[in-house]
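Hello again, I could really use a second opinion on something today. For a while now I've been wondering how a particular protein folds. Please have a think about how the structure follows from the sequence. Here's the protein in full, and shout if anything looks odd to you:

***
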Amino acid sequence: MLGRSARRRRWAAACGAFVAGELALRLYWLAGGRWAYTACDRTHLTDPSGGCGADRVGVLPFWPGWGSVAVGAALAVLVAVAFRRPGRSVAAGSWAAAVLLLVAAFPLHLLFEIPAALAGRPADWRDLGARLALAVGGALFATLASAAGPPREPLTPGYRPVPRWTRRWAYAAVALPVVGWAVPHGLWLLDVPFGVSGPKLAEIHDGMSSMAGLAITLVPPLAGLLVLGLVQRWGQEFPGWLPFLGGRPVPRLLAIVPAAVVAAALITYGLLSSALFTADLLAGKVTWPEIRAGWAVTATLLVFTAWGATLAVTTAGYALTTRPRERPDTRDPMATASLR
């Protein structure tokens, strides 16, 4: 079994490979190449298979080019430091890198677009592939942060029941995407004008096929069921029927990091969308009669924010329940004396 130092170096090497790949791709784009680069607008896809004319882009925008190179260089320095020595500062930097990469990946976009694309809706696979790569990088840096931080006591085998308030928030997090998303979208898919006007319903139908609409309707609430793992035994111990893993403790970061990132993405999307909607309302681009006629569409903005908030509270409850204690440094005479 690998020691803690060996694990840290292994994950630092994996993070280094990710950073090197991303830097090489960005430098290739800056040199004039356009493989895997996309110029698609996410709301109006024209020729997504070709990156919407990516080959005709002469000057690369800042963030896909030099901006990403600067971020990559900073991450490379972090990886080099992490490879040589552990510490709280390295762990904090790795956590910051993980959050940055996962926010840039915007998992909520992947949650909706990949099922719709598999169901036949036109999709920008270059953009989706780049986001998946960023999500993988975020997961790698989160693992490096755990390996580089101070040693902690291992988890005690067995299930730790979460507080009752955590369960209640978890059930709310499961119910919200069903009631606030799947039900109205299912009705619209069946041509029922629930909370929308006739023209808006026709616009919704024109924007998606039956299979894509079914995927968009069902995937979010089905994915939302995973939040139950934060309050059930299988979220702390792998089920016994799983080969090799059955009965083993679930690494807490494997549950906390994805849940926290999705919660942050949901809240951010809901708040930003609400701010833009309010700005359009104040500017007169949207009127109160239009809001009343399409109240169900407007309400989804609140659903996203509430869904993220309930998931965030549930994740906090899981983190508090499964929190390990920091292991005392046995080289410190005071810490050693306190153990006697």
Summary: Confidence is low (pLDDT under 50) at residues 328-340.
